[in-house]
Amino acid sequence: MALQSAALLPCAFSIHKEGKSGKDSCFFGVPLCDHIKADSSLKLKLGSRKQSVTRAEAVATTAAPTFAPATAQGKKTLRKGTVIMTGASSGLGLATAKALAEGGKWHVIMACRDFLKAEKAAKSVGMAKENYTIMHLDLASLDSVRQFVNNFKQTGQPLDVLVCNAAVYQPTTREPSFTAEGFELSVGTNHLGHFLLSRLLFDDLVKSDYPSRRLIIVGSITGNTNTLAGNVPPKANLGDLRGLQGGLSGLNTSSMIDGGEFDGAKAYKDSKVCNMLIMQEFHRRFHEETGITFASLYPGCIATTGLFREHIPLFRLLFPPFQKFITKGFVSEEEAGKRLAQVVSDPSLTKSGVYWSWNKDSASFENQLSQEASDIEKARKLWEVSEKLVGLA
Ligand code: NDP
Ligand code: PMR
User: Can you tell me the distance from the alpha carbon of 22 to that of 260, in angstroms, rounded to the nearest whole number?
Assistant: First the structure.
């Protein structure tokens, strides 16, 4: 029923790129029936850190909060939890920061590339000053990631939860753009920037005395080919990682992980597969040893966020009603923020290695990842290749 209605809509959801018809996203020609299930449905030492600090870019809006001394006995402390949230200047990250700040139990480090935008955003949603600090982080620069980590460590604050939420999506660009180190931008930002960030901050999570320490990496339905949404072309596919191994530079090798021709929508979906694979690899390597909870999630289709800023205007106009009335996958920023806030702090969501989703009644459940997004061997290889690219191995 929903699919029939979808097919009647104009092809406003297609991206037209000359000579790339096979990869374009469109209502038509979508293999909808095959292998689709409803989406409702360590043993490695921490790598030595190479910290080449070149810029001092962190800015704090408020004095660092004061903390009760950590208890060596491991009993619960009453202090506020500290959560680092990347991409907290808009959309899901901002809504989550707001939800956590409102509860009064969390101090949110808003790790953002645009300080003023983040400050205005925090004010616009009414976050009280004592509940957040803004620190500069540009995930499209590994130097900036190292600088951020260095600045955070210098504050002396504990780290209780890290949320890798920021992302870029470039569905309409024909040519790839690149991070400071020359990696294709979507994978460079969404995956490699977060991978380095998580690795460098991992010992802080290990050291934290907070009752439940968590590393959360936001995933998505569109990276999961066991869903209808994940079967909308271009589909995620990391292949044998040959493009990633080549550095995604687009020079002598491909800018795409699988070594194929550049496609911005696919690069984003591939990056989400990386996010979900890395979460599981963290779980396999470190959960037993550290007790840290590793989780990913699909928060629902938040069709109104800035993620779609580079999409054509007609898409931005029709996407929210399409998701609201046809797929019924729509979720407001506020609701999605509450969902991610649950993954950060809900005592019932401590299971590690889980990809959370929510049903129509907004109840959380453990969802199934696609075959590729749960491929153990691919996750291991992705981890190892990524380590080399970000200078950890
Ligand atoms: P938004 O565009 O609203 O938020 C993305 C955030 O990432 C912004 O704060 C943006 O900063 C930040 N960001 C982008 N590039 C960088 C960078 N180089 N360094 C630091 N921060 C950066 O999108 P959403 O809120 O929708 O996306 C949040 C997460 O949710 C993403 O991981 C996305 O994949 C995921 N998601 C979203 C869905 C949706 O339907 N919207 C569905 C499923 C998952 P700035 O404000 O400066 O641009
Ligand atoms: Mg989708 C149950 C059906 C469903 C859901 C939950 C989503 C979520 N989408 C669904 C179905 C469809 N979409 C169908 C049938 C089509 C073809 C008409 C379709 C198309 C479509 C496009 C062109 N959808 C999109 C796009 C995008 O550009 C968005 C994207 O892929 O961003 C990467 C997108 C999305 N659909 C979703 C969600 C959650 C997104 C965007 C966010 C993301 O994955 O991060």
Answer: 13
Counting from 1 in the atom list of ligand 2, the atom nearest the Cα of 269 is 33
- In the structure, what pLDDT confidence band is assigned to residue 4 with cuts at 50, 70 and 90? very low
Least Cα distance to 217 among 331, 369, 390 occurs for 369
What pairing do the DSSP bridges indicate for beta strands 214-218 and 161-164?
parallel
Please give the structure tokens belonging to residue 92. 């899901």
What distance in angstroms lies between residue 309's CA and the mean position of ligand 2's atoms?
A: 15
Mutate to test the pocket of ligand 2, among 164, 273, 327 (most ligand atoms within 8 A of CB): 327
Q: In the structure encoding, which two tokens stand for residue 271, read together? A: 């990056």
pTM for the whole structure: 0.87
What's the pLDDT tens digit per position in 66-97?
344 444 445 554 599 999 999 999 999 999 99
Side-chain half-sphere exposure of 177, counting CA atoms within 13 A: 12
